[in-house]
Amino acid sequence: METMSGTRPDNDIEIYSLYNGTLAAFTRKKGHPYGVANDQNRQALPFPWGVFITPEEIFGRYYEYTLADVLGSGVSRVVERDGLRILSHVNPTLSRAVDISVDSNGHVTRIERVRRPDIHSQEAIKGIWSGDPFDLRRKTTTLEFADFWEIDGIAFPAEVVKTWWRRDEVTVENANTRYQAGQIDQDELTIALYTAPVNEFNVQFLALEHARLNVPLSEEDFRIDWPDGLNVVDARYAPGPGEIVRPPLAPYVYIAAAAGALLVLGALTAVIMRRRNPWKAKRARNRK
Amino acid sequence: MMIDVHNFTRCWWWVLLVFAALVMPALGFAQEGPSAGTETENLKKAILSWSSSLVSFSGTYNLS
Q1: A39: closest CA among A240, A235, A241?
Q2: What is the pTM of this model?
Q3: Which member of A48, A84, B5, B10 lies 3.0 to 4.6 Å from A101 by CB, making a disulfide possible if both were Cys?
Q4: Which residues are bridge partners to A40 per DSSP?
């Protein structure tokens, strides 16, 4: 379960609970509360992976791969920059590259997702690239960790900053133009693309309030305490896309419908009984 | 075949070799430091140990 309360102006709330493929959600946006329960066969929370900083991402998960998956095969090396040791790893099989910085206390202080030239390109540009191969990289996201708390025996960062990077498009376009004009060759283009400056286009901040790690959880822990009076939509019976939403009926509607049905039933019974009793019908005709 | 113990023990360089191979590394004289490969593997192991320590998370945090 993720509970997120931010500093947004109207104090919006989003609570998502995913347990064994069943999702429940409570949101309050601009003062309008909304609840959905029993949304089944969900594989993930209802937003794309990476939009929110999750504990799994802090511990190295990136989309479908854990850090163990990425570090499981490929090529690693250690470089030192700014007093930090950086494990730089490329996994060609999964097409993933990651640079992980570790401080003198052994804390992982930064995880950078990067793109690097493939092995063949790296070999080809050795002759013309005099710099450190580590610097041939293009950052996509950076997670920076600070203020480590020791929670249940595990170092957990209480402050996380996630930066999304985008290549400087002018530099990239210039390089491509020069390549197409024959002014630079393929290897020089590779160097230009992987040394192009990057600009941040989104920065997210996370401040931990309270956490416990590795606590045995049960289904009860994933139960959302719905606010009093909230009309919770049961996703199993909710209308599908394009279907009409039927407003819930008040109890008196059901009572009136039941009374009406009884009246109709009684009238029908009376008619049938009258037709089946020939003596009564005959007497009635004789009176006339 | 009999081993000529007398000749064997006279080979003083043999003793020196054993000393160099076993004793000096233990004292730290023969190593300049961990090799690059060992350092990389140790760092990777330490990162993976921390990374795999999270099983479940329960808590709240602020996002902005």
Answers
A1: A235
A2: 0.69
A3: A84
A4: none
Compute CA A123 distance to the chain's CA centroid, rounded to the nearest angstrom: 38
Sign of the four-CA dihedral A272, A273, A279, A285: negative
Contact (CB, 8 A) for A39 and A24: yes
Q: Characterize A94-133 residue by residue with b for buried, 16 or more Cβ atoms within 10 angstroms of its Cβ, and e for exposed.
A: bebbbbbbbeeeeebbbbbbbbbbeeebbebbeeebeeeb
CA of A41: how far to CAs of A22, A52, A221, A269, in Å?
Answer: 6, 21, 19, 49
Stretches where chain B sits below pLDDT 50 are 27-33
Residue of chain B minimizing CA distance to A70: B48
Confirm whether the ipTM is greater than 0.85: no
Number of residues that this document lists for chain B = 64
Closest by alpha carbon to B60, among A6, A222, A163, A202? A6
The 10s digit of each residue's pLDDT in A43-62 is 777 778 888 888 989 999 99
Q: Do B63 and A59 touch (CB under 8 A)?
A: no
A1 touches chain B (CB under 8 A): yes
Which segments of chain A have a pLDDT < 50? Answer: 1, 5-6
